[in-house]
Amino acid sequence: MNGLFSVIVPVYNGEKFIKETLESALDQVNVDFEIIVIDDGSTDNTRKIVRSFGEKVTLYEQKNSGVSVARNFGSSKANGEYLAFLDADDIWMPDKLKKQQDKLSNGCDLVYTDRYNIGEIGDLPQIHSDICEMPEGDIFEKLLCGNFITNSSVVVKKTIYEKFGGYDDKLYTCEDWALWLTISAYHNIGVCLEPLVKYRFHAGGKSRNYKRQALTRNEIIRSILNTPRGLQLTRISIAKIWSKTYRTSAWASASSGDLVMSIAYYLHALARWPFDLSCWYDLARVLAGRA
């Protein structure tokens, strides 16, 4: 159905926030949409809450298989021309899809937006773009230096999503980043610079499994650099990309209290690109116990 948005909402034990999330999807204005919820084996009241919306929401159930499997399954059931992903604890602004529709009409294959940070945000700003550039067009090389695309902000043409096989369910984390990288290597990316999503942080979320996350980042970078587009990058670009990757893992390690691993990653980053003064500054902060 031309112009229809299929909203894909994976959820596992999401009884606390799923009602507010679905209400924000139902509040979308001036666009046609369907809402598909995939319950990933919840053991709480999630399914009961979703069913309370009646025919406004289509519910599918699967055994606990992970968020990537849930998103891919939901996408396979979608009738829309566009897929819009919404995590079960995030919130959309009412005009989100309409503003992205305008971008899609102007030649973009994937459109993301700025966001509000909510919940346990710590020292993060309320608006994501205050600390993060949000480019559009050919963003491939910039995206390799770190993921600035919020999953719940993305709308993508279904044909493009299917072309690249959806989310990689073999990845432990960062599966969204891997997909955006694959798409951005060959397609035009648009951005709505207005915050149109409220992205929720949870206590302890930053410190969970930081070691495995670091290994997954490295795996994704190695894989993408070995693609035809990745092989076209210059040696300087590759050095900067690896430096940024190690620096991200260094920051995550420091945030989790692992100063030894943090220092090791900062040294890796500086070995790849020693001209990043901010990286030297961050390393000095860790060494001084001020991370």
List the SSEs and their pairings.
Elements: E1 5-11, H1 18-26, E2 33-40, H2 46-51, E3 58-62, H3 67-76, E4 82-85, E5 91-92, H4 96-104, E6 110-119, H5 140-144, E7 155-157, H6 158-163, H7 175-184, E8 189-201, H8 210-225, H9 235-255, H10 259-272, H11 277-287
Parallel strand pairs: 1-2, 1-4, 2-3, 6-8
Antiparallel strand pairs: 4-7, 5-8, 6-7
Helix pairs in contact: 8-9, 9-10, 10-11
Organism: Desulfuromusa kysingii
Keywords: Transferase
InterPro entries: Glyco_trans_2-like, Nucleotide-diphossugar_trans
Q: Give the spatial strand order of the biggest sheet.
A: 3-2-1-4-7-6-8-5
What's the CATH architecture of the largest domain? Alpha-Beta Complex
Please bin the fraction of helical residues. Answer: 40-55%
- Helix count from the secondary structure assignment: 11
The fourth-level CATH homologous superfamily of the largest domain is: Spore Coat Polysaccharide Biosynthesis Protein SpsA, Chain A
Mean pLDDT: 95
